Amino acid sequence: MTEIEAIKARHSVRSYKRGMIEPEKVIQLRAKIAELNAEGGLRMQFIEDAGNTYNKLLNRAMGLGSAPSVIACVGKDAADLETRIGYYGEKLVLFAQSLGLNTCWTGTFNHKTIPAEVAPDEKLVIAIAIGYGKDQGKARKSKTAEQIVEAAGERPDWFDKGVELALLAPTAINQQKFAIKLTDGENVEFVDKGGPYSKIDIGIVKCHFEIGSGRKF
Length: 217
Ligand SMILES: Cc1cc2nc3c(=O)[nH]c(=O)nc-3n(C[C@H](O)[C@H](O)[C@H](O)COP(=O)(O)O)c2cc1C
What we know:
7 strands; single chain; NADH Oxidase; 217 residues; alpha+beta; binds flavin mononucleotide
């Protein structure tokens, strides 16, 4: 499965089957995490037994308490930490999708009970539930390209392809509070329009746009 196929297949999944992820897949996930952590200067952690990460009433009501495992997104505190977590965390989400697994980014989880390692100079930004979903989730409402694009004149094909996949990016409460700006027909800017976890959203959007456009920004 290519990254483009993974983007098209992915939906947030909040109800998981019983049983742990097979050891061969855990090895692959851990190797991918090590690679992404090195690239992004992060310390994302695969926690095989999610334990009481999702014991809050809200999580249980959503079904997230069934997630067998969790990825803790941790990194040294920095101005761009959230956006980097969004970017590299989504790379991991897409890799998990290609292994046949399902995921859900979660801002709401129990920070006190998640079995993550967080050093004094680090921040636990967010968690990602992971496992085999009871189903594959479903498509949700999306803004249109016209609602999020800021571009004067003609738009190159690569830009439109990037926008198409950016609109499939998961965002907190499906807010999609971002704009994608084309300047000089060549440069792209990802504009954060605010809202909860919007800095993480921007990193996720950038990840999807790059995959769709085939360019790096
Ligand atoms: C930063 C972030 C935080 C999120 N937090 C939660 C959460 O706490 N609980 C939850 O059920 N879903 C959460 N989600 C999942 C979003 O609700 C979901 O991505 C959005 O509705 C779009 O649906 P999709 O992922 O199926 O495309 C979060 C997503 C992101 C990107």
